Amino acid sequence: MLLHGTFEEHDGVMTDMGPGYSAAQVRAAERPLLDAGAPLMAIAAAGLAAEALRVLETRGARAGRVLVLAGSGSNGGDALLAAAVLARRGSAVAVIRLGRRVHEAAFHVAERAGARVLPPDATAGAIAAQAAAADLILDGVLGTGAHGGLRSPARQVVARILESGRGRAAVIAVDLPSGVDPDDGSVSPPVLAAHTTVAFGAVKAGLLLAPGRRWAGRVRLVDIGLGVALEGVVPLVGAAPWLPASGQEPHRR
User: Fold this and answer.
1) What does the pLDDT look like over 215-242, one tens digit per residue?
2) Helix, strand, coil proportions of the chain in percent (round to 5)?
3) Rounded CA separation 47/133 (Å)
4) How far is CA 77 from the centre of its chain?
5) What's the pTM value of the predicted model, to 2 decimals?
């Protein structure tokens, strides 16, 4: 997803979990909307922020302290735009960039909103200390285009967070937990187990298949308008929990 136009704060529409689609199927459904200029990233980020605020409130933190793990892809952009909303609502937001690059437009929105950006040379231990003090961690490192797990420095950072413990922080995975394959649910450690995964447009099949489903927590789906494009598309996993759409075990890489 790309950022089009300006980012506006509005509540995302959360719907119940449905069938599971492949990353390629979701990207194909998004393409006509992106070509038409639909602000899919802004819509996704608004839904993510709404869920983050709900989680903070249920944990008694209301605004709270938030650590954003931002990768270089669209999931990192989604997390950064959601971080901007949370910062404007009074959360103390810290952002660490864990990819080779960052979604520049979303990064500047978060920075202008008051998010504090940790220095690029922050050690894994320093980041783990931030995680231990946080009420909420947004995992926006890897997206649906990534396979094979985290790479340096994200790998060391997540491993250190897991080793040190994350205190009372809840974890929200952005579209899927980093390190969980979107299509077959295979897991490449280290992975932050999510309390909630906020999926955009369609639930990815890997969130419904073992072992990935064990790392996804509660899955919330944000409607970004893919319903028409996905009509007639046969999902990898059927609407019944854990049931492949074809009745056969899906191909595993």
Assistant:
1) 999 999 999 999 999 999 999 998 645 4
2) 35, 15, 50
3) 25
4) 10
5) 0.88
d(CA 186, CA 173): 16
Instruction: For residue 162, give both structure tokens.
Output: 């897991």
| Amino acid occupying residue 157 | V
Identity of the amino acid at 196: T
Q: How far is Cα of residue 134 from the mean position of the Cα atoms in its chain? A: 17
Q: Quote the Cα angle for 212-171-150, to 5°.
A: 55
Q: Which two tokens stand for residue 39?
A: 């602000």
Fold of 14-230: Rossmann fold (3.40.50)
Q: Are 80 and 110 in contact (CB under 8 A)?
A: yes
- Find, among 169, 165, 217, the residue nearest to 61 by Cα: 169
Nearest to 99 by CA among 146, 132, 136: 146
Tokens 């994350």 found at: 166
With tokens 């929990």, the residue in question is: 241
Q: At what angle do helices 40-58 and 74-88 cross, to 10 degrees?
A: 50
Which residue is listed with tokens 């299509």? 183
Q: Which residue type, as a one-letter code, is found at position 56? A: L
CB count, 10 Å around CB of 142? Answer: 32
The answer to whether the beta carbons of residues 225 and 33 sit under 8 Å apart is yes
Query: What is residue 49's three-state secondary structure?
Result: helix
Tokens for 119, please give them: 């220095």
Least confident of 62-71, 85-94, 144-153: 144-153
| Residue 54: its H or E element | helix 40-58
> Tens of pLDDT along 160-174?
999 987 778 999 999
